[in-house]
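Work Package 4 report. The design task specified in the project plan requires that, given a folded chain encoded as structure tokens, an amino acid be chosen for each position. We show below one input record used in the internal validation round.
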């Protein structure tokens, strides 16, 4: 992640989170079982990596990857890449945060319209998903003295996503993702940190309130129901205060702690260690943010969403 210029705080949090949910507590892979297995003896099965972490880390509404239950896999989709590429072209061959915000809204509407099991999950929807969009610009844009924030043109985007061909007849060849030649990363004094990400998150949320609506389709397309944040959190968060300060970030990160025991019990015989690591990571990440303290949530509010219940066939989550 250093190659991109990711802040240590953000990299650490994402690494710890990924290692807990998709790995073996020390590392995780992009797809498939992690190579280094700790002798913990408490893992229920082989860690599945990011591709096996649906709605825990990887979720619906990815920019380029399809929704798992819509396609039966979460492979990159040419149609989604082409839609983003086109928006960039219409913006003077520049994919910036406005373009990505617009694209995320399109993807949201597309998931509601096409994926009966669309589930906009508490943490993966409100934190990981927006990060997946802001990272595209913040990390893939080519930085220069003239454009310190960076410029992300169509060719650079194609290189990072292993795309060849011309719009709209693209081909994606997974495994061939590469840094473009002559491409420059973030300045060393300007790494992308959590406070920086929070600003981008707030800007996105203020433009489209959908981005805070944890919820989903109820088994048919176009049946999206959002869960009122106040109902979910017993009033600690509400639709109004979620748009203030760091609250959206607090909401997402604190929600994962509330969801963690269920999620982890599908992964570990004994969740103590994993839960402890996660709690410390969340504590470190939210230190100094004055987050409202979330101590419980009403998970039954999610029972009407098959995208949620499909994850736990026997009362525990399965990837
Ligand atoms: C990145 O920007 C520099 C400076 O403008 C330029 O020379 C270089 O060709 C650009 N690289 C890419 C991949 O666009
Ligand atoms: C939202 O919560 C804040 C405090 O956290 C409270 O002051 C406010 O009245 C609440 N707003 C609504 C609409 O419930
Ligand atoms: C996290 O913070 C909470 C609240 O301040 C505290 O009770 C808890 O002990 C901390 N946990 C860890 C693992 O640091």
């Amino acid at each position: 992640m250093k190659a991109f210029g990711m802040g240590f705080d953000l990299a650490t949090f994402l690494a710890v989170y990924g290692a807990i949910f998709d790995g073996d507590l020390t590392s995780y892979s992009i797809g498939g079982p992690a190579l280094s297995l700790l002798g913990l003896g408490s893992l229920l099965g082989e860690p599945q990596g990011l591709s096996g972490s649906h709605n825990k880390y990887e979720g619906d509404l990815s920019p380029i990857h399809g929704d798992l239950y819509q396609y039966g896999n979460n492979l990159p989709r040419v149609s989604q890449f082409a839609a983003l590429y086109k928006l960039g072209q219409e913006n003077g061959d520049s994919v910036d945060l406005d373009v990505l915000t617009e694209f995320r809204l399109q993807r949201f509407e597309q998931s509601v319209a096409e994926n009966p099991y669309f589930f906009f999950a508490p943490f993966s929807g409100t934190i990981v998903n927006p990060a997946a969009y802001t990272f595209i610009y913040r990390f893939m844009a080519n930085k220069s003295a003239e454009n310190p924030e960076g410029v992300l043109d169509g060719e650079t985007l194609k290189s990072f996503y292993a795309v060849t061909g011309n719009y709209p007849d693209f081909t994606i060849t997974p495994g061939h993702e590469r840094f473009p030649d002559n491409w420059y990363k973030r300045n060393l004094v300007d790494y992308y940190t959590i406070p920086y990400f929070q600003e981008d998150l707030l800007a996105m949320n203020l433009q489209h309130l959908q981005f805070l609506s944890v919820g989903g389709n109820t088994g048919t397309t176009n049946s999206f129901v959002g869960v009122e944040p106040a109902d979910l959190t017993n009033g600690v968060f509400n639709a109004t205060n979620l748009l203030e300060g760091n609250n959206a970030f607090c909401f997402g990160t604190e929600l994962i702690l509330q969801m963690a025991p269920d999620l982890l019990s599908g992964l570990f015989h004994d969740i103590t260690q994993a839960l402890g690591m996660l709690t410390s990571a969340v504590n470190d990440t939210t230190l100094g943010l004055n987050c409202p303290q979330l101590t419980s949530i009403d998970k039954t509010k999610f029972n009407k969403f098959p995208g949620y219940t499909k994850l736990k066939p026997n009362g525990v989550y399965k990837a």
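The chain has eleven helices and five strands. Validation will be extended to a larger panel in the next phase.
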